[in-house]
Amino acid sequence: MQKRLYYILLLILTGVGFWALGVRFMDGMSVTHLTSYFSWGLWVVFYIFFIGLSAGSFLLSTMIYVFRMHALERVGRLSLLSALFSLIAGLMFVLIDLGHPERFWHTLVYRNMSSVLEWEIHFYLLYILLVLGELWLVMRDDLSAMATNDTGIRGTLGKILSLGYRTAPTQEGQAKQAHTVERWVKILGIIGIPMALGVHGGTGSIFAVQIAKPYWNSSIVPIIFIVSALVSGSALVTFLYSFFGEKDAEKPNVLASLSNLLIMFIGIDLILVFAEFLIGLYSGIPQDMQSLKAVVAGQYGPIFWIGQIGLAALLPIVLISLSHKNGSDLMKGLAGLSTVIGIIAVRINLILPAYVSPQIPSLEKAYVDSRLVYSYFPSSIEILTSIGIIALVVLLFSVAWELLPVVSNSGHQTSGRRTESYEINTKGPTHTA
Amino acid sequence: MSELIKEEGPQKGAGQQKVSRRNLLADLAKATVGLAAGVAVLSASAGQVEAESSTPQLAPSPAPLAKQIPQDQLILRMQRELYKALQKPAEQRQWAMVIDQRKCVGCSSCTVACKAENKLPPGVVYRPVIEEEYGTFPNVSRRFLPRPCMHCTNPPCIKVCPVAATYKQKDGIVVIDYDKCIGCRYCISACPYGARTFDWGEYYTEGTPELEKYELEPAFEYGEKRARVKHNSPINNTRKCHFCLHRLNEGMLPMCVTTCIGRATYFGDKSDPESLVSELIGSSRVMRLKEELGTEPNLYYLV
User: ipTM higher than 0.90?
Assistant: First the structure.
């Protein structure tokens, strides 16, 4: 019953979103409240939010498949799957933000080697292939099992997605296959690390290379993008696994490891943000100063203090430290959820404050027009399309979760060896969970 | 009287500036002939008739350029220099604009002329005039800063375009290929001068009983006939000042230069050391916006 209600709600939201998307494509960019002086808004905020979630989730998966953090093995597929769907969401947002979305293919045909955005689009496409490849490798045994054992939609899905692969009947053959998977997943993971860093560090560089915006024009910006991506990725996986993962003896350990990682990433992120603001406010370059003031004590203050500091840092730290005392999985999940929502605030504050001050003093008064102002609040169409896209992706993710072997392990481990000799192996119960 | 003449040469006396009635009449006559020729060119090119026979009129004036030209004839000098520059291959000329802030009275007629010439829709402006105020009462003064595109030598907007839709022509003009542009607005963010605006697809008479037909009339930017109707470029594209490239190619000065009531805007070929703009750029009053960013604008201000 609950599940049905959940799907109905998602379908309604998706429907509303599709209507809003229709309006956006019919009427063009005039449906937004963007201006020529405030040229990127809510859609770009969600674009970098989802690219961040994707890169973060993927980097988390490399800790399992490359660095062999066995404690997190349970969430390996989950993090790859959320990396895939987050990336799809991010690309949808960047697509609807284009004035001429029908010309998206121009980015692959007309080249400008000096454009960060050009490179990023190529990175995204290669990265999506890499994630798909890795996901298929780690799930192929289960897909093969689905194809042979299940009937109905799951059976069909297994047949299609397994691409003809079948688990070998003999023990020897299985060991061989497992070895192949292990090697290839590791190779893909190793390629994937610079790629995921490129995906989100590069996304940060889209902003950081702009000399016109002192608020962005800093080499710490891409680093903050990467670290906050790690925060959001591990928070999302913590939340999903805690709320929807199967309950068993392993779960508290996995969650304890996840939440420790999350705290570590939040800590690094806080240091970087502190450094950015301290240096910026100390230097006092006027245009930068106006942006920083808007964040710390201006119109973006509530988003900063409640969202970025409250929801994305303090609340998860408190919840996780409390959960260590009473061993509550739910609290860790809540910490994850709070962080994910808080990261939206982080993304808002990474984009919007750069546009609060004119490039040349008094430019806003030189020619008065509603599209030539330095203020912005998203229009209802912008908000509804965003809700719609998010609902659609959550819907697709939920269906994938239902149908595909995401969390359940068939006992056929992808990483064959399990010794206690690895440095970051936290297989044993290291926490009183 | 004029800053320019003083700078141009001390060898000529002040008497030179007095224009006798006869000279004035002669000038007027010349101007009338020029105007008539201009009209002829316009009507010929508009009608696409006898385009060949009218081209000789675009040829440079055979008369040598006088070093000393009265203020009211600077436009003729710029016109002649424009013809001269157009005879050269594109890569040998470098268009530049000079704006004399002491002469600018802030009438915004350049802004309006530009809007009219390029048929700019709401929210799109290529050349706003910024009003700057200095001092505290009672010691106050005002200065005006028209801000077209700087046509930088090192333009940040071109670097970031993901589809190479915006690029620098050989003659130094930064242009946009409307058919390539995907409307991502990266260049708008990247411009340190706010010189790029987005065409949101709005109309002035939208929401009134009738969408006036003149709003759908095509502009001739870049010499292309583009009707501004739904979803067609330049709607949902970035737009910017292009030094009236379509006029330049026909031997006409940019609209803002032609229309300036105080002759505060000058235009010409920077690579020609004898041109008016080259002379003005040599002034000690010269200034460029945000030099510290290394964009090397080709738009100079005289402060």
Answer: no
